[in-house]
Structure formats: structure tokens, C-alpha cells
UniProtKB/TrEMBL annotation:
One of its GO terms (molecular function) is aminopeptidase activity. The keyword Membrane does not apply. Residues 192-405 form the Peptidase M24 domain. It comes from the Archaea. InterPro entries: Creatin/AminoP/Spt16_N, Creatinase/aminopeptidase-like, Creatinase_N, Pept_M24, Peptidase_M24B. It comes from Haladaptatus paucihalophilus DX253. This is Aminopeptidase. Residues 33-102 form the Creatinase N-terminal domain. Pfam families: Creatinase_N (PF01321), Peptidase_M24 (PF00557). Keywords: Aminopeptidase, Hydrolase, Protease.
Length: 424
């Protein structure tokens, strides 16, 4: 099977919004995401959902959730499509002014996370949870959904009990399923955000080729790469550059102060680089000078394993069949790890969904897929990654893709046929 070929003029455009060309339509993306969640919520028989997890809040509201001290921001979505959002004093004030598509923004009481934990008193923690539940319940009464089942996307028993004390029928499993179903297939604008974040990562790779050389530390190279990404408008919340013996097995500290030397393999993992909240996961491998034959052979093995998997991905295919493209236990080099089963080999060979989180549906992995398969759907987006040891070092390679009608479109475009050679 061949790969999806983009139409003429289809692909990334500028990073800014303009009046003279259609690019990522932010309003359309917000509306379509909300409608997907709303439709599935109604189908699940829920009158409302309380969303606390940052990616779910952003998916429904379009508000930039960049972490915080815990449940100091949360959102209620009602069956009529109304949204009530609670946030910290400064955030809520800014949102009231800058985010006119949300008409009901209120000040939050943080019932979970760092604020209750730091209070030092069980009585304070109980009061904060009760206050948070009370604020949400008041809104549920205002919007006429207090008597209907309410989904909640976290399973915090003390908070749930505060709602149950008020007579709310709380559903956690249904809410998790609603948001999983809504988010697993991406809209056209979500796909374009992922295509854009791949392009940003490629700017980082280019900066690596310009700065990596013998005598330079990994941390210096990573610093220059992230400077490039921030300058282009990306949010850098993960990733690393590693070299030499740190490349296999993958170094526990990620980027270190190790000095790069001639003959080193260097690879970069741009994961959790964000554009409009959408996350990357994108490996590429570099060599300091001409790679050895063993390094070239290892890279060819890793690349071929990757593309074996990509050839298997299409709508209707199941993950138990697709995962057979990844190496068996011998190919995983399990004896080196003293491992006996694929579940012990987390992160080495797998594919994982990409979106507003680094790991979304689907997960394709020999560790679980043979016994717990799911079906691939058109519009799913994912990263597929492989690795291979060579000469006491290692290579890694990864592609970001979207599932199309007859296969995958590869969103990542940095050359993949060979190790990128850096001359110095």
C-alpha cells in the first residue's frame, strides 16, 4: 500500500492568522470540538459533564490550559451546550475580557491539587472540596441540569461524595468514554495544528545540525534548539538531545552536560512540543561525521520496522494485527534487558495517539494490543517510533501520521532514509 499524497497546495501555511488566506480556523476548531463532545455526552445520557483534566477543558472551551496548582480551573458543559468555566482570579479576569466565546466565567475554589495539599489541615481540605462542589452545583441548578446524571472526568472519591451529598448522580466511566470518543478522531484544524507542530520540530532539527559538533555539550545543543522553537511560537514542555553512550539505553536524565565527540550518534526527541496545545512526538538521528556500517545497518533496521508498521495502518485495521510489524522479543533485544515479556519494554517500539496530550487513543504495542485490540479509524493521529542499538550506541526514528481513507499521511518531513550526517 502507498501512503496518502497531499493534494496540490495542501500542507502547512503561515503560523499567524491573516485575512487574505484560510489557515487554521480557530473558531471552527473550537466549535467542532465542543460539538463532538456534546453529541457524545447526549448519546451517553448525561445532562452535564464536569471537566477537570486540562486537555478536556481545552478541548471543550478553547482556553489555554498550561497546568497550574491542581483543580483551580474546571468546566461544566450542559446538555444544551452551555459552558460554565471556573478559574483562578487572574486567569478568570483575563478570560472574561479576552475570550468572548465563553459567556459564563467564574472564580474557582481549588478543591483538588496543590492548594488543599499545602493547607496542612484536613478540615481545610474538606472545606475546599465542599466549596468547589457547591459552586458547581449552584451552576447546575441555574442551568437546569442538577437532577440529570453528571459526568466527571476524574475519579476522586472525596470530591464525588460532595456531589452525591447534594443528590447528584455522578458518572465517571461514562464521562471518560465520552471524552475518549470525542478526542480520538481529529478535525481538519486539529490535524493542521499537528502538521504545524511537526514543521516547528523540523526547525529545531535544523538548529541541531548547525550547533552540534565535538566539544559542545548536549545541553548547549538542546538550548539552541529550544530557543528556535520558542522563537517560532512553540511551547516547549518536553524533549531532549542525547549523544554517544547516552543513546542506548536511553539516558535516564535525558539531556545532560556530556560533551559530544567525533563518531557519536546524536538523536533528538521533540516530544510535548506544543502548537495551540497540540503535542508532538518526533525523533530523528544524527551522526558526527560519517556513520559506521554498524550504525547504518541499525538505522536501516529501525526505519524498516517503522515503515512495516506504517504500511499496516489503515481504517478498519486492528491494533493486534498492526503491532506484529514491531520487533519480536529477539528484535527488542530482550536478553540485554533481562526481560521476558513485551510489557517490560515500554517506550521502545510502539505507536501512540497524539493530540492535546502526548498519549491518546490509539496505542499500538505488543505489550497489550494482542489481547486488547481496538480498531483504527480515519482521522486518528499518532506517532510511531522504533529504535535499534549499534556500536554501544543507539539510533531512534519516529514519524507523526494521520490515518486517511486508504492508509496514512506522514505529517513529519525531515529526511528519514538515512542518518542525517553532520560535518564539522
Amino acid at each position: 500500500m502507498g501512503f496518502y499524497q497531499r493534494d496540490f497546495m495542501e500542507g502547512t501555511r503561515g503560523t499567524m492568522s491573516v485575512d487574505w488566506e484560510e489557515r487554521i480556523d480557530m473558531q471552527r476548531m473550537r466549535e467542532e470540538r465542543k460539538e463532538r463532545a456534546l453529541t457524545r455526552m447526549r448519546e451517553a445520557g448525561l445532562g452535564s459533564m464536569l471537566l477537570i483534566n486540562d486537555p478536556n477543558v481545552r478541548y471543550v472551551t478553547g482556553l489555554a490550559m498550561t497546568g497550574g496548582s491542581g483543580a483551580d480551573h474546571y468546566t461544566l458543559l450542559t446538555e444544551d451546550g452551555d459552558i460554565v468555566h471556573w478559574d483562578t482570579a487572574d486567569h478568570a479576569s483575563n478570560q472574561q475580557f479576552n475570550c468572548p466565546w465563553i459567556s459564563d466565567i467564574r472564580y474557582a475554589c481549588p478543591g483538588l491539587g496543590n492548594v488543599p495539599r499545602a493547607s496542612g489541615r484536613d478540615s481545610a481540605r474538606d472545606w475546599l472540596k465542599d466549596k468547589m462542589a457547591g459552586l458547581v452545583y449552584e451552576a447546575m441548578e441555574e442551568y437546569g441540569v442538577a437532577k440529570e446524571p453528571m459526568g466527571i472526568d476524574i475519579g476522586n472519591a472525596p470530591l464525588i461524595s460532595k456531589f452525591e451529598d447534594r443528590g447528584v448522580d455522578v458518572r465517571t466511566d461514562e464521562c471518560a468514554k465520552v471524552m475518549e470518543d470525542a478526542r480520538k478522531v481529529k478535525t481538519r484544524d486539529e490535524i493542521e495544528c499537528l502538521r504545524m507542530v511537526a514543521a516547528l520540530c523540523e526547525a529545531g532539527f535544523q538548529r541541531i545540525t548547525e550547533t552540534a559538533k565535538p566539544g559542545v555539550r548536549e545541553s548547549e545543543v538542546w538550548g539552541e534548539a529550544t530557543r528556535e522553537l520558542w522563537g517560532l511560537g512553540a511551547m516547549v514542555q518536553g524533549g531532549y538531545v542525547t549523544s554517544g553512550p547516552n543513546t542506548w539505553p536511553k539516558h535516564q536524565a535525558n539531556t545532560t552536560d556530556r560533551i559530544i565527540r567525533p563518531g557519536d550518534i546524536v538523536y533528538a526527541d521533540f516530544y510535548n512540543i506544543g502548537f495551540m496545545g497540540y503535542r508532538s512526538c518526533y525523533y530523528r538521528t544524527f551522526s558526527m561525521g560519517e556513520p559506521t556500517q554498524a550504525q547504518q545497518d541499525a538505522y536501516e533496521t529501525a526505519r524498516d520496522n517503522l515503515y512495516d508498521v506504517l504500511e499496516r495502518i489503515k481504517p478498519g485495521a486492528t491494533t493486534d494485527e498492526i503491532c506484529k510489524g514491531f520487533p519480536d522479543m529477539e528484535g527488542e533485544h530482550a536478553d540485554w534487558y533481562d526481560a521476558t515479556d513485551h510489557w517490560q519494554m515500554t517506550t521502545n517500539h510502539w505507536a501512540h495517539g497524539l493530540g492535546l496530550q502526548l498519549y491518546e487513543v490509539p496505542l499500538i504495542w505488543r505489550g497489550i494490543s494482542p489481547d486488547h485490540p481496538i480498531e483504527i479509524e480515519e482521522g486518528m493521529t499518532m506517532a510511531v517510533e522504533t529504535m535499534e542499538p549499534a556500536d554501544r550506541q543507539g539510533v531512534r526514528v519516529e514519524e507523526m501520521v494521520v490515518v486517511r481513507e486508504n492508509g496514512v499521511e506522514i505529517l513529519s518531513q525531515w529526511p528519514v532514509e538515512e542518518i542525517t550526517q553532520i560535518e564539522y
